[in-house]
Structure formats: C-alpha cells, structure tokens
Design a protein that fits this description.
Blueprint: E1 2-15, E2 18-23, E3 26-32, H1 39-51, E4 53-56, E5 62-65, H2 66-69, E6 72-77, H3 99-116, E7 120-122, E8 130-144
Parallel strand pairs: 3-6, 6-7
Antiparallel strand pairs: 1-2, 1-3, 1-8, 4-5
C-alpha cells in the first residue's frame, strides 16, 4: 500500500461542488492499494504516517509527528499512484488493487485512522474529486509498504 503525503497549512476535497473533507494544518494523504495488499499493509502504512516526523520542533527541525502537533489528516483515495509508465505514453494501472479490494482497504485505513487520531477527513472513494491544498514547505513524501507477497 502506498501514500503520497503532503504537509499542508490547509487542504480540501470537493465532489460535485460539495466539500467532503477539509483540514487546517496537517497532512494530505493520497492513498493507493496495490495488488496483493491486505489490512496488514494498511495498518503498517497508517502507523508510519502517524509517527512520521515531518513537522518543525522549537528549533525548526522536522522532528514532530502529526500526532504530536495534533494536525488534521485528509485521506484521499488515488489509484493512479500505482501507475506504471515504463511502456509507452499511456500509464498502466494494472498494479492497483481491484476496485472492490481498494475500497475495502481504503475504508479500513480510514476507520483505523479515525480510531487512532483526532481529526480525520476524507474524499469519496471512486469519485471524481477536486483537491485543493497549500503545501507547507513544500514537504511531499512518498511512503510505501509493499505487499507481503512481493517481499
């Protein structure tokens, strides 16, 4: 399972003109389930995300986690993170989990995030979404927990 994290001062996702999720300071996590992923990979990814030290401490060093700063978490499903662009000019998404598996893992990830962290907002799985953000830094970090079958 993978995520592209962006440290933000604010972020919002809308579907059909209606806001489905919005946060202030925190992390925007674009999340993708890959072929072979299970809840175990989702849990490991979430644990890493919540503890990743990407926020400044008193000295200005990236030394504090999302949990430590009490920031928001906006989780948006994005299967295109699994794109394979090695052949030709059209990306292949064959590495992404099937839609039903992707939805189940996304919902599991969000449920666990809500159980472990205070402020969690989301997009809508499978919808055409517009994501607005102000990237702070900019800080953008890819995370990937490979499926156990690929290890």
């Amino acid at each position: 399972m993978m995520a592209l994290l962006q440290r933000v001062t604010r972020a919002r996702v809308t579907v059909d003109g209606a806001t489905t999720g919005e946060i202030g300071t925190g992390l925007l996590a674009l999340v993708c389930a890959e072929q072979g992923d299970t809840e175990a990979e989702a849990d490991k990814l979430l644990a890493k995300l919540l503890k990743l030290r990407v926020f400044a401490d008193e000295g200005g060093r990236m030394n504090r986690s999302l949990q430590e700063v009490g920031g928001g978490l906006l989780v948006v499903s994005q299967f295109t993170l699994a794109a394979d662009t090695s052949g030709g000019n059209r990306p292949s998404f064959a590495n992404a989990a099937p839609a039903d598996t992707g939805r189940a893992l996304y919902e599991h990830f969000v449920a666990r995030a809500r159980a472990q962290h205070g402020e969690v907002a989301t997009g809508r799985f499978g919808a055409m979404m517009q994501v607005e953000l102000v990237n702070d830094g900019p800080v953008t970090i890819p995370l990937r927990i490979p499926p156990a079958s690929a290890a």
